Structure formats: C-alpha cells, structure tokens
Protein 1
Amino acid sequence: MNTAANIEDPSRSSDLAFSSDENRWQTVVDRDPRADGAFFFAVRTTGVFCRPSCASRRENVEFFDDTDAAAAGYRPCKRCQPTSLPRELAIVERVCKVLDADPQQRMTLAQLGEAVHVSPFHLQQLFSRIVGVSPRQYQAAQRAGVPMRSNVAAT
Ligand SMILES: [Zn+2]
C-alpha cells in the first residue's frame, strides 16, 4: 500500500505550481482543473487555445497567463471555451463572499488565495480582470461604503 504519495492534496496549488513552463506542461498533461484560469495553453498547429483541463490535443503548445492568447492570434477552443470564464467567475464570487462577510477585516492576497485555493498572484490578476479593481481596492471601497458587488453580478 504505497499510494500515499499519489493522493492529491488540494492545498498544494501555490505560486510555484504554474510558474514554469515545465510545471504548466505537467499540469496540462494531467488536465488539472485547478489550473483553469491560472493560465491557458495554445496549440500552434491548430491555432486554438484552451483551458488546462480541456480534453483537446496538447502538442506544440505555448502558454499564456491570460486570454492574451487571443491577442496573439489564437482562437478560443469551442470545447472548453477559455474566454467564457465560468470557473474564474466562481472563484471571484467566492472571494467576494469572503470579503463581504467581514468588511472590516483586512485580508491579504495570501489569505484570500488560501481561502479559494488560488495563488495570490493569480488571484490578484483574476480579481482585477473580472471585478475591475484589486482585492485591496475592493476592500477599501467596502470600508468606505461603496458597493462593488454589482460588477460581478452583472457579468
Ligand atoms: Zn479546449
């Protein structure tokens, strides 16, 4: 019974997890859904870009941190719809929920990332992209009594 090493630890996703192309490639090979939104891979031969968990072919790939893949001329995959952001939205919703729960409490990016199992760096990017402000700005606005929730709900 030597299976302990194979058990996935959901808290393992960290800053380092997707920081190098080697890690990203491994993640893509594993089709790890936790990487969805953290980066995208584009297939040079087909001109399509995908979420890491997509079932489509993965060879001759290039990695993108964001949907910049579209700017680079790649088309979003029809299967995994990398530009539709359902999972990213869900993550941001969870972050908002955490922040809304106690507006007076100052949460660091690290704490928030921990709460939703996303790296602080990625969380910052994601949150800013979807909500339009950083988590810090969001919290500041909350404390100032400016509701920002509507941005997310309207998406
Ligand atoms: Zn795809």
Note: Strands lie at 40-43, 48-50, 61-64, 75-76.
Protein 2
Amino acid sequence: MTAATAVAEHASPTYAPARVDGIAPALPVVGADTLVPLVDGRRVPYANLDVAASAPALEAVADHVARVLPLYASVHRGAGYLSQVSTALYEQARRTIGAFVGARDDDGVIVTRNTTDALNLLAGCLPADPATGQPGRVLVLDIEHHANLLPWQRTTDTTVLTGGPSVAATLAALRDELRESGPYALVATTGASNVTGESLPVAAVVEAAHAAGARVVLDGAQLVPHRPFSLAETGVDYVAYSGHKTYAPYGAGALVGRRDWLDAGTPYLAGGGAVKRVRVTETAWHDGPARHEAGSPNVIGAVALAAAADALRAVDPAELALHEAALRDRLVVGLGNLDRVQVVRCWDDAVDPVGVVTFTVTGYDPGLVAAYLSAEHGIGVRDGRFCAHPLLGRLGFDAGAVRASVGVGTPGSDVERLIAAVAALVEHGPQAQYDVVDGLWVVVDDPRPVPEGLGLDGLLATAALGDPTGCTPTVP
Ligand SMILES: Cc1ncc(COP(=O)(O)O)c(C=O)c1O
C-alpha cells in the first residue's frame, strides 16, 4: 500500500463517534471567552483551533507570572535581594523544565527561545567523526518540521530517509539505513508530526539508534505539550520543546539532554555569562548551561514554562489524553465523513496521535478555506505546508492543506463548530467575497473592526508569499 492509498482509506471512516459539544476544556486558558467579529457584523467567541502553532497561556501560568513580576530583577550577577530571588526563581525553573521531560541527574538543561533554537544549538555540538574530522552524520525522516531538518543539513552530512507507507515499514527502513549505511552520530526524530500528530514509537527508534551507536534527539515541540515524556524512561538522549506551544507564551523553550556533547560543543552564543575568564587573546568558556546561555536570560519565560509544567503535571495524564483523543477522533471522522474532504495521514498503523488534524477540501484553496473559517465563523486554523514541505510534497499536498489542532483549553463545541462550518462550505460555498491580494486570501472590503485601544490601524494577514518562514504555499 502506498502512503497515498493509506491517506485515502482514512478519508472514508466507517464509524461516527458521538458529538463532543458537551466536552469542557481540561484546563482553563486565558482568552477563552474572547469575542471576534464576523463579516456579517456578529461577534462570536473565538474558536482557537491553531494551538499546534502557538497555544494560549494557561490561566495558572498567567497568574504565576503576575505574582513573580514584582520580584523580577537582574539575575546571576546582581547582589541585590530581588536579584537573588530572581536568580533562585530562574534556577528553580530550570530544574522544573528538566524534570518535566524526565531529565536524568547528569543531563544538561539549557533555556532556549524555542524548539528551533534548541535544535540549532545541538547542531553546533555534534562531535567530530574521528574518521573525517567533520561533525558526525545525522539521520532524519522526511516527515520532519524544517526545524528538525535544516539545522542538521546546514551543519553536517545529513541523510533524509523517505518515510514508508506504514510505521512498520518506516521503522524497518530506519533500521536498515542505520545498519548498512552508518555510522551516524544522531537520529533526529519527531515526537509527534505537526502535520498529522503521528509519530514512530520512540522506544523502537531509540533501540535501533543505540544498537548502531547513534544518539537520539526528539523534536518534542508537538509531543511535550500533549503527553508525559521522560528522557530517563525512554533512553532518548536529547529533547527540544517550546514554551509557546506548552501554554507558556513568554519566549522560552528548552534543550535537555546528555551533558558531554553540550559541554564540549561550541558555545551557542558568544558573550557575557558564558565565560569564566577573558583575556585579549584567549577565552575560557564555562561548561554547563551557562556555556550556551550568553547574554541576559529570559527569566520570566523560564518561570512561565516551569509554571506550565507544574500545571500540566497536576492533572491526571489519562484525563488529558482522553479529552484530546475524544476531540481528535471527532475531528477525523466528522471531517472525513464530509463530501470532498480528505484527511491527511502519514501512516495507517500510527498509535496514539496527538490532537493535530490536517485536511483538504476539493475545489477550495486551503488559504480560502482558512479565510472563510475566520471571516464567517470566527474559527482560527492554519493553512499552508506547515514548515514540512518534504512531507506535504511526498503525500501529494504540494498546494498545501488546512490544519486544525486542539489542546487542553479546547472545548468540544469548537470542534463541532469547525465540522459544521466545513460542511456549510461544501454544501453552499462561502457567503462573503474573497480575493487574492499580494498572494493572500482576503475578504473583499473586509468590514471587521480591529480591537480598540491598541493603536492598530488594520488587520494584517498572517502569511505572505515569500514569507521568511517559508511556511506558505503559492496561492493559485
Ligand atoms: C514538530 C515541530 N517542530 C518544531 C517546531 C518549531 O517550533 P518553534 O517555532 O517553537 O521553534 C514546530 C513548530 O510548529 C513543530 O510543530
């Protein structure tokens, strides 16, 4: 079976899970009641189904940040009382950020800006292959987000393995590659695809990589906010994740893992705080996290991320998983049962995917679908190729797709609104007039006002052709 046929099979589900209108959010998030304008003049609560891109702050996180802000002062080298408090808060947050992903006692925990930053940092720490003197080789699959592909390609000899039609076939190909074409220093794998929510079983990847002498880095951007994950329990060597996807949108992320590569690697940023001693002609760099954290750290970001970790861990993981699975199942089946709607899957044997569901509507450009959902229904989704161009291309979706994603703050009613809105599109088409302006789908003469009191003079569309993120497909 090809990947394309696997996709088609999943687009024709044969069962229909119950409606989920009654399912409440698992945890309260900031902004859940925010009203947004529609083109017909009504205001409706915003249905945020784009949490895989950036999740709203947990109320617990925002409250904690508000408590900490009056204590905020310079960290690490300040002698003042509040500097010492802030330093203690930052270092305590580091411990929580590590514990959240099951760090081993001797693992390093580096506070970064986000997952992209963390993976670039690790790419600069790949040890040299003794045979070539060059950074060790890296093996990745073509399903990866660009953040878990481009840093390796830019740094070293990287093999991009094409995913197979099933998890089993992909694992077999991975094992063969490791056995027959190694040595590899590192296997870089996603904890959950940002396109389909699917992943390879981490234990199997670790076993194959370690048997071949390679380490494993997990791109945890989509996994860590959704499932408990432990470095110690899985044997994964490094994990990267983002605060803004983990309900802590204050600008921090993390790289956690084995210290030896991190302590020997080139300091990620050169500057104050990363050094023990500087002379005009020589510099002695720190080891430990300070080596890679030059400049003033993001104390509030780290504290917020730690608060999110505490809040997520305070809830039974089974409860969170049930909430998410119910919403995801309903999305897959509710959308997949609609005429002309195709749900994108990588594999038909993937287990326990996270709450990310990507789909297309035949006859409608994904950008138009996203603009329609926003303008006529107050629903936020993402369209494009999701910074995963190789995967979208291989699966036959080079023109992009639409992605809906859910999290702990998503009520079931948002999912039902999306399914009903897509059904209405399929049946009646859009009611407003849309046009492509400068490569973007916009409402013709968009009447929606901007929020007052913020000095805004108009809405800005979210992506453009030639967008520096490269996440947007060409709009026909
Ligand atoms: C799977 C995956 N990896 C990496 C990233 C990059 O995350 P960030 O933008 O927080 O660096 C994303 C973001 O969407 C993602 O979904």
Note: The chain has two domains: 3-56+316-443, 60-313.
